[in-house]
Amino acid sequence: MSRVRLFVYGSLKRGGLHHHELKGAEFLCEARTVPGYALEPWGQYLALVAAPGRQDCVTGELFELAEELLPVLDEFEGDAYFRGEVALADRNDGAALAYFGKAR
Fold first, then answer.
1. Cα separation of 16 and 10, whole Å?
2. Which residues are paired to 5 by β-bridges?
3. With 70 as the cut, is the pLDDT of residue 93 above it?
4. Do residues 95 and 89 touch, judged by C-beta distance below 8 A?
5. Helices marked H in the chain — which ranges?
6. Cα–Cα dist 53/22, whole Å
7. Least packed by Cβ within 10 Å: which of 33, 48, 98, 102?
8. Torsion of CA 89, 65, 20, 86, to 10 degrees
9. What is 3-101's CATH superfamily?
10. Apex CA 46: angle with CA 42 and CA 50, to 5°?
11. Quick check: 73 pLDDT over 70?
């Protein structure tokens, strides 16, 4: 069973309204993006967006989960979001998956 890393920044975080959607995911650590990302209002939630040239970093949490859970999360996130790679800073050097807001 293949595992992937997922960066979450809103209602999927521990204690968040929708954290239960991360069935069986293992919390790894608190994390933040490299500069160049921001959170924007997206309906009643926030969405991660690329913000080239900005010095903003987004804080969140990093989880490891079974790759088989991704289609379930895709459906949960719906049409307003897409899954992509986000670059992480500090001890989390490298990339993880994250849900970004689709361009409107």
1. 7
2. 64
3. no
4. no
5. 70-77
6. 32
7. 102
8. 30
9. Gamma-glutamyl cyclotransferase-like (3.10.490.10)
10. 90
11. yes
Q: Would you give the DSSP letter of residue 5?
A: E
In angstroms, the CA 22 to CA 3 distance is 13
Question: If you ran DSSP here, which 8-state letter would residue 64 be given?
Answer: E
CB-side neighbour CA atoms (13 Å) of 48: 29
> For 33, which DSSP code?
B
User: Does the CA dihedral 21-26-30-36 come out positive or negative?
Assistant: negative
Helix (H, G, I), strand (E, B) or coil at 92: helix
Tokens representing 27 are 């919390």
**Does the predicted TM-score (pTM) go above 0.85?**
yes
- Inter-CA distances, 101 with 23, 46, 66, 75, 87, Å: 22, 8, 23, 14, 16
